[in-house]
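Quick question about two entries, pasted in order.
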Amino acid sequence: MQASASDFYLLVWKIIQTLEIFGFNVQYINTDGAATNRDLEKILLGDFSSISLGMKIQNVFSSSPKSLFFITDYSHLT
């Protein structure tokens, strides 16, 4: 059974929140190029045409304003 991108979105934010509570500083999300991960990228980052080299969002669970970068590794899928 494969999780949907919206399920994955909720899970990712829950994990980030939990890590921040325990004092970890989450700086990036790293995924492969699977379809669900690409859909998650669309949910988090919006329209791809407006994305520059800085694929980042605000980490809403950080105690101070910090960016959360989204890194996708497509290379092993080709």
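Here is the second entry:
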Amino acid sequence: MLPHSSDGDLRLYVGGHLAAADSSVIQAHLDGCEECQLRLADIAIQTRWKEPERRTDPRIPVNFEGRLKLLDPVTSVG
């Protein structure tokens, strides 16, 4: 198993600031490490949603929890 990714590397990964080779190493580790997946989600929330919103469509309020599904372009079909 690959060593855990540092918070700094995960921040760079979220921002798309890593070289392709480094990004591939982190992605390979994330595929099998739930701990780093959770850390990545926390970092993404902290960094990405501090910026102004770029959406053009208004948000629509709903009375149920949202769901997030991570799709893999190789194995996800239909």
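Reply: Helices lie at 7-15, 20-32, 34-48. The two ends are 31 Å apart (CA to CA). Hope that helps.
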